[in-house]
Amino acid sequence: MTLSFLFPPKKLMSVFILITVLLMGFVCSLYGQSEFSLRVNDVWNLFVSYDESNINQQIILSLRLPRSLTAAVIGFNLGIAGLLMQGLTRNPLASPTLFAISSGAACLTALNSLTVASIGGLSNEAVAFVGALTGGGLVFLLGGGLSSNQNALRLILAGIAINGLLTSLTRAVLIIADDMAYSLLHWLSGSLSGIDWSSWSQLWPLSLLGLFIATSTCRGLNLNALGEQTAASLGVNVTWLRIRICLAVLILTSISVTVAGPIAFVGLIAPHLARAWCGSNHFMLLPAAGLSGAALVCWADLVSRNIIPPAETPVGIITALIGTPFFIYLILKGKR
Amino acid sequence: MGCFKAIDRSQLVVLAKTKKTNEIKNGNGYHYRLLFYEVIMIQRSTLLLSILFIASFGVCSAQIQAIELEHDKGTLVIKKTPSRIVVLAFSFADALAIADVSPVGIADDGDINKLIPSVRSRIGTWQSVGSRYQPSLEAISSLKPDLIIADSGRHQSIYNDLMAIAPTLMFKSQGVTYRENLQITQKIAKAVNKVDLVNSRLEEHFQLMGRLKAKFKSNDTFQFAVISDKGMWAHSPDSYAGSVIAELGLNSPIDSKNKNAYISTGFEQFIKLNPDWLFVGKYTNRTVLDKWKESPLWKLLKINKSKQLISVPINEWSLASGVLSAEKIALEIESQIQP
After folding, report:
1. ipTM higher than 0.85?
2. In this complex, do A308 and B260 lie within 8 Å of one another by their Cβ atoms?
3. B277: domain CATH number?
4. How many domains does chain A contain in total?
5. Threshold 0.95, pTM exceeds
6. How many structural domains compose chain B?
């Protein structure tokens, strides 16, 4: 009874469609646009009759599979993080970018590449992760994350300020770096071209942890939609909810940015797609936003490889190209 | 320097005398007022003046002829040989080095080591005018240059500002190919009035390139790429290093249909390129190659079997893009192919 209330069949259908779209994107990106003329048969054979000496299968296994899996999980993470941010601030234009996580990671990575601030011999991934946590942590603290008197506007303003600071620092570094900037710019636009199994093994454990925390906030978010005071009067510990949401956004976005650089707009679009199909119940929205994000990044990655083959166009450029008109649409819709 | 001033002033004096005035306006709209001693000179014997004028004319006659130069922003008329030149790209410093002219300012990103040693040793000291990306207009104008040579790609937006400081030549530097750069080198030689010197130096250069080309005769494929921890960028035959490799008669693994100079290359694309020789210029100590080496697919690569993976100085192969750096590239390849 409760279950059918939470997951009505019509909405389950939408989730089913989303999964199908995601799977199609996932499989296509396993063999699409390759210099080795990979075919869908190669993907099939990889699972049914694995042959170690077959170069096509090796390429799918060592390069394509980790890349597609990573793309899907990053999309999933960003979609959920976007949903949590929009739920927390009750602002449809909020996205994980607000938390200055991407700009924190970008700033520290840029500084580290220039060896201006070589950070204790840490690997690039570790540096990006530290930067992401620092940026996000600063916004969280400045935005009154721990105070009992919550104000969503304060969080947004803190986000804008810290983002501005970190972005200008990154720009300064890029101008000083000049020829180094070329290689950094690719990463800064969000690129999946360097993904391998080691990236995957960094990504999944933290993503799983973030997902658990995110799931635990669904009930709170449903009530928070009615307003913080109403939620509090219904027995929700709003401060604790807020801390959990921020923590989940921080973990999910930080690890995604660390692996692939800042991929823009996914966290903004995915929750809206999910809401259009699955209503406003966060138990339904959470998987739907995640799946929409995953499908979006998988397809964007496929498109990005087809723009000027064999060169790689950063996937972040494609998501931004899709995202900007969408953002404008949201603004116009809000106006009406 | 003093010599040019003398001609200038002496021309003025003659002009002033014929026009019976002590103020002259030239074609550029500049006003010259005769100095007191020059007015006195006009009043002195004509013979003395003629002798002085002819003598100075004879000494510096080469510099007086105005030169018309085609560049990327039209035609520039250079009336006298420039002596204070500011260059905003490394390839132009290379061109001046073989003309035995020292620029007074270079946009060297504040790091003299970015210029390759063979260029540095041929030119005197210079002042940095900031980064190539955004040179300091103030620093340029404080050097009082009489010619600026700028990159038509990077410095398009500041062309008018540069023209306000001094006559400016715009040539391609970023993404220039070997052949294009040879033409630019010859134009710069013309601008600094060192055509004969540069031509004889280029003759030497062509002999070296010709000798090496005849020597190489290899069916292997050669690729140069810059790498960092963020990725690999293969330099195609439409880039400088790539075009030097092609000039030496060596094959590229890149499809000739691909006209991009720098190609962002993932591991999958690299496996497809699979060059026999890979020269890499590293931006960072740890690079994507270290990651790729751990993959089982690395075993498929020819460079893994032949060990023909060579680390080269990135300044010479990627930043310099000049005649001297082309020689360095060619000699490096020679030393690797036939040790």
Report:
1. no
2. yes
3. 3.40.50.1980
4. 1
5. no
6. 3
